[in-house]
């Protein structure tokens, strides 16, 4: 039994029939209108959200203008030292700042600034008073937002050479290139973490020295800016204060530097006598005439008047300032 073959398909299909209704056109127009309205709504919503974000966005980072170029920060422990001694320390800072007064060359500046506070001004939550140096430095950054550099100098130290400027003697990039101690253990003598060997002077934001025991936080310079704020706030973090390090903020700094390469990448060690000579060779490099500053090593450990007595050995700073 055979079935009929299906009809053959024509290779010449009939032409399209003319549209008999306007309904498809109306539908396509409506669809196009809906799509365009949706795109317009999404665009307006995006513009609105962008505007809100811009209104609430943080302001651009402030770039210090360099006026003043340097602010010297010292924290006083009035309960430990006599008023006469602390007044002499304050006079030393003020005289040094005076020597670097208004510059006639452009851009003009108002000279070095000074920032004196008491350790009791800050709530340290039971931590040793030496920790007060950190909120004091952060406070100075807020009070002097246009300062280029903040120099923290301990109350047991005296500036000896009024002719040396921080921005030239220490922080100038070409000068740092000469001074930086590279590929050197952060904590002597054999720390496996070492200062970066490829660091350039213009990358440095934090300068300090070492003594025979390790990093010395009694005299250091930070370049004012967002990184410095981050660094000081990290260093002052409550978790580090709660660790009860033997040497408080000094050992906390050694811990941070060894565990946080983002901080080590901005740190430069310089020879001790550049920024932080000691009054005795026992602790580190001993002061020589011409050095910028001298710290009275272990001052105060033998009694309240020890610092004032030892400071008499370096009273020549007054004559040096008068003759400069």
From TrEMBL:
List every stretch annotated Disordered.
1-23
Supply one GO CC term from the record.
Answer: mannan polymerase complex
The Gene Ontology biological process annotation of the record reads:
protein N-linked glycosylation
Sequence intervals crossing the membrane? 31-48
Please give the Gene Ontology molecular function terms for this protein. alpha-1,6-mannosyltransferase activity
Keywords on this record?
Answer: Glycosyltransferase, Membrane, Transferase, Transmembrane, Transmembrane helix
- PANTHER family registered for this protein in UniProt: ALPHA-1,6-MANNOSYLTRANSFERASE MNN11-RELATED
Q: Give the family, as the similarity comment puts it.
A: Belongs to the glycosyltransferase 34 family.
Please report the name of this protein according to its UniProt entry: Galactosyl transferase GMA12/MNN10 family-domain-containing protein
What is the source species?
Answer: Neurospora tetraspora
């Amino acid at each position: 039994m055979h079935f009929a073959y299906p009809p053959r398909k024509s290779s010449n299909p009939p032409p399209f029939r003319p549209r008999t209704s306007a309904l498809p056109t109306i539908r396509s127009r409506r669809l196009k209108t809906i799509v365009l309205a949706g795109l317009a709504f999404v665009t307006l919503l995006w513009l609105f959200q962008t505007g809100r974000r811009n209104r609430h966005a943080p302001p651009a980072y402030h770039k210090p203008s360099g006026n003043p170029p340097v602010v010297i920060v010292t924290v006083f422990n009035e309960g430990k030292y006599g008023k006469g001694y602390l007044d002499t320390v304050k006079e030393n800072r003020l005289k040094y700042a005076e020597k670097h007064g208004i510059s006639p060359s452009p851009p003009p500046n108002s000279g070095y600034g000074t920032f004196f506070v008491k350790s009791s001004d800050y709530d340290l939550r039971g931590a040793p008073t030496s920790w007060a140096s950190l909120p004091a430095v952060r406070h100075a950054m807020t009070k002097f937002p246009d300062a280029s550099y903040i120099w923290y100098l301990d109350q047991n130290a005296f500036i000896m050479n009024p002719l040396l400027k921080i921005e030239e003697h220490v922080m100038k990039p070409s000068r740092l290139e000469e001074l930086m101690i590279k590929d050197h253990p952060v904590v002597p003598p054999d720390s496996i973490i070492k200062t970066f060997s490829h660091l350039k002077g213009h990358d440095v934001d934090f300068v300090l020295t070492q003594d025979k025991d390790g990093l010395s936080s009694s005299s250091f310079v930070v370049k004012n800016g967002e990184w410095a704020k981050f660094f000081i706030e990290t260093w002052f973090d409550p978790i580090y204060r709660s660790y009860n390090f033997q040497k408080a903020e000094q050992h906390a700094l050694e811990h941070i530097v060894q565990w946080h390469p983002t901080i080590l990448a901005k740190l430069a060690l310089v020879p001790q006598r550049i920024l932080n000579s000691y009054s005795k060779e026992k602790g580190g490099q001993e002061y020589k005439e011409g050095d910028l500053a001298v710290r009275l090593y272990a001052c105060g450990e033998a009694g309240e008047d020890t610092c004032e007595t030892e400071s008499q050995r370096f009273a020549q700073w007054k004559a040096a300032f008068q003759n400069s």
